[in-house]
From TrEMBL:
NCBIfam families: yjdL_sub1_fam. It is found in: Membrane. The keyword Chloroplast does not apply. It is a multi-pass membrane protein. It holds the Pfam family PTR2. Keywords: Membrane, Peptide transport, Protein transport, Transmembrane, Transmembrane helix, Transport. Belongs to the major facilitator superfamily. Proton-dependent oligopeptide transporter (POT/PTR) (TC 2.A.17) family. It comes from Flavobacterium ammonificans. This is Transporter YclF. The chain crosses the membrane at residues 27-46, 52-73, 82-99, 119-140, 161-181, 187-205, 234-251, 257-276, 288-305, 334-354, 366-388, 394-417, 429-456, 476-498.
Length: 511
């Protein structure tokens, strides 16, 4: 019908349904995440170490489950149904987060008494979010790819627009939820995140007619059939919802998450090898290999980048002079600079790639630039700390970090999402998108272990000594500076080989 053919800014209207849905989903996701380390360390009196590791476990599961969510969508539900189910889980999870119970107290002898019931509600809420993101995140990205036929030159810019939606959500979330949470009470910040997700769900459900029938199940008969007297579709929802109980336990154990990541990574790798060996040949096989190598390098990128929600957030709270142009920002609000720079620079980068024409770097080179930039971002903080003398570090340096990190992100993330939908065989796009996020999952885990290099003991309840604290952040940032640059150079050396394996998809990628 004419409705479905209508475009806005030259893109299918469905893109904007996905844009606003993902905007609200990320609003809820980042609003909550911005508060997490402070909620844990200041309200439940977690140590830096255990707070970082909990965030690492949670975030790792959040990004690991999309492999399963992607797989189930490819094989059974289709993207649309998976997204709705994920959205419902997310609304419930964020609402659960708004229950905070009692603050932990510390006795004179240093013993900490925590509200265990509140903590269990909290862990269960996290697990609902894990299942929710698992069904929503990768699938909504795959659905963006489905809006364009193969070879459609608008695909890359479609992803750029979509990526701006992600960050529009993140921008408002880190300003509003961080402000509410840090100033008025954690519940307010978390509840605001839940309201956002609810709006996202409504947006998606009401926008169905613009999706041109895309993202539907490939096996509707199978879904409609019954097993054990229940419709298969409902069995899938039921089993998936019950898996929240499993993640409820997992999120509380860093060890367990480490195993899940190793097993999921290993199995995914074997499946890719099996699929490439039995179902693909020639060009298609090469392209899948190229994609897999690129994905491995994203692990390093995100492990550095994701310091934002742990070490960098605590750094902003403790060591940063948070005055920006006369405004005193909360620590969490600094996260909004990443999103702000994405929104401002995404169109610039999209334009730049086109403008560079035949000098446009191929995807592998772009990824290596990203790694170098994320390393340089930490260089900015090393410099900032060095120049701070005995006082706090000027806000400028952290803002510069986010600027460099954002430029890196723009050379890797939207380009990468688009590459996934082009380099993977159609039958496993959902799964490969899941693998893309599985790499982020490992990064989140590694990031939290790295963040612990700079953890500070605040168990005596006193503000940490500024100079000692600076030294431990310095150690971490120096290390990350060299890591980013080292891996960036390595990838640069490998890039000609990867380019060959892509067989010109790259040309089209840079349209
Ligand atoms: N910030 C982006 C998002 O939320 C990328 C996250 C990631 O892949 N690590 O979608």
């Amino acid at each position: 019908t004419s409705l479905q053919k209508e475009t806005i800014f030259g893109h299918p209207k469905g893109l904007f349904i996905l844009f606003f849905t993902e905007m609200w989903e990320r609003f809820s996701f980042y609003g909550m995440k911005a508060l997490l380390i402070f909620y844990l360390t200041k309200y439940h009196l977690f140590s830096d170490d255990s707070g970082n590791l909990l965030i690492g476990s949670y975030a790792a599961l959040v990004y690991a489950v999309p492999v399963i969510g992607g797989f189930i969508a490819d094989k059974y539900l289709g993207f649309r149904k998976a997204i709705i189910f994920g959205g419902i889980m997310l609304v419930l999870g964020h609402l659960g987060m708004a229950y905070e119970g009692n603050a932990a107290t510390q006795s004179m002898t240093g013993e900490i008494v925590r509200d265990n019931f509140a903590l269990q509600v909290f862990y269960f809420s996290l697990s609902l979010i894990i299942v929710g993101v698992g069904f929503l995140k990768a699938n909504i990205s795959s659905l963006v790819g489905e809006l364009y036929v193969k070879g459609d030159a608008r695909r890359d810019s479609g992803f750029t627009i979509f990526y701006m939606g992600i960050n529009l959500g993140s921008f408002f979330a880190t300003i509003i939820c961080a402000w509410l949470g840090e100033n008025y009470g954690w519940s307010y910040g978390f509840a605001a995140a839940g309201v956002g997700m609810f709006l996202g769900l409504i947006t998606f459900i009401s926008g169905k007619r613009f999706l041109e029938g895309k993202g539907e199940s490939l096996v509707p008969e199978l879904l409609a059939k019954t097993s054990f007297g229940i419709k298969n579709e409902w069995l899938i929802y039921g089993a998936s919802a019950l898996s929240a109980f499993f993640f409820w336990q997992m999120v509380q154990s860093h060890e367990a998450v480490s195993w899940i990541l190793k097993i999921a990574g290993g199995l995914s790798f074997l499946y890719i090898v099996y699929f490439a060996a039995t179902q693909l040949s020639g060009k298609e096989r090469d392209q899948l290999i190229a994609l897999t190598i690129l994905i491995v390098f994203t692990i390093v990128f995100w492990a550095l980048f994701e310091q934002a929600y742990t070490s960098l957030n605590l750094f902003a709270d403790r060591i940063l002079d948070r005055n920006v142009l006369g405004f005193e920002l909360t620590a969490g609000q600094f996260l909004s600079f990443n999103a702000l720079f994405i929104i401002l620079l995404a169109p610039v980068f999209a334009w730049l790639w086109v403008k560079l024409g035949k000098y446009n770097p191929n995807t592998a080179v772009k990824f290596s630039i990203a790694l170098i930039l994320v390393g340089l971002g930490f260089g900015s903080l090393v410099l900032g700390i060095n120049l701070s003398d005995t006082g706090k570090v000027a806000a400028f340096w952290l803002i510069l970090t986010y600027l460099l990190h954002t430029c890196g992100e723009l050379s890797l993330s939207p380009v990468g999402l688009s590459a996934v939908t082009k380099l993977s065989p159609v039958k496993i796009v959902g799964f490969m998108m899941g693998v893309w996020f599985l790499a982020t999952a490992s990064s989140e885990f590694i990031a939290s272990v790295l963040a612990n290099i700079a953890s500070i003991d605040t168990s005596n309840g006193l503000a940490p000594d500024l100079n000692l604290a600076k030294q431990s952040y310095m150690k971490l940032f120096e290390y990350l500076f060299y890591t980013g640059i080292g891996f960036g150079l390595l990838l640069l050396i490998l890039s000609p080989v990867i380019k060959k394996l892509m067989h010109g998809v790259d040309k089209e990628l840079n349209n």
